[in-house]
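Model the whole thing, not chain by chain.
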Amino acid sequence: MPALLVTFLVLGALGLFLALPGGRRCSNLLGWLLLAAGGACVVALLVWLISGGAELGWSIGLGLVGLYAALRVITHQKPVYSALYFVLLIVAVTGLLVLMEAHFLAVALVMVYAGAILVTYVFVIMLAQRPDPAVYDIRAREPLWGAFTGFLLLALVSGRLFTGGEPAAAEALEPALGPSGTVEAVGTLLLTQYIVAIQLVGVLLLAAMVGAIAIARRQVRPEADQSDIAEVAR
Amino acid sequence: MMIAYLLLGATLFALGVIGFITRRNLIVMFLCTEMMFQGIIVTLVTFTRFPLAGNPATLDGQVFALFLVAVAAAEAALGLALVVLLYRYHHTLDANSWRLLKDE
């Protein structure tokens, strides 16, 4: 595993632990500085490994925007801003998909996520959010162990990425690029080879819609017992 | 080029896992599951774009990612309906306030 990757993992875990909302004062700035240093490490590693030209520049730029948005989603104390940063993440991922010539998927992603799912999220947040910041948004649950576990998983996966021999040789061994995912190509595949699967997905979406309506229409009696909540909200 | 995309996909997945573990707001936890889906989509499309040696170049990965988007939409609809129902019980979005499965 290259030293720059290890540095990125350690700095990322430490910085994310400090940047997560945890009731500590004055440590958020240090956390973001550590995260920025980790990002610089991974950019240096990629530039050193890959001679990709313009595509590498675009993908690194979009990837950094996406990573920043993802970090803000999990560190911001207000859920509305988390949802809006998630839109930024979707836009960055869409740019990466366009770089990889997955045009149909990019359009579908923007329409489904940024158009439909995020509107639902914002509606629910507006329905359920109190004006003052709640205690469960200010204090994270076990930020140290959460960051440690997540970056351990990332170390496992990314370590395997870099153990396939010499990086330059691995890049040279890459075969020809895959086909371009235009609307025509993907649509033809969907309506010929995957016709049964797409019908099943339609049934699944219908069942989810009916189920969501059935769940949300249920009458509940408001809970009178507040002592449990007061105990948990410590 | 492939390594950069795969690293980004793995990082997005790991950040989603961390957010799901550490955040206590139910809505933010659901956003983190969607973030994990984004990491998986990036990985699937990367393997479509750069097929491994000896494999035919097909579009199957992108088709699979499209099905993933559909499943994510169904999951978001059901999950948010459940969140609204839970909020109407306790008037809080704290995941820690739902430690008991039985109806009190």
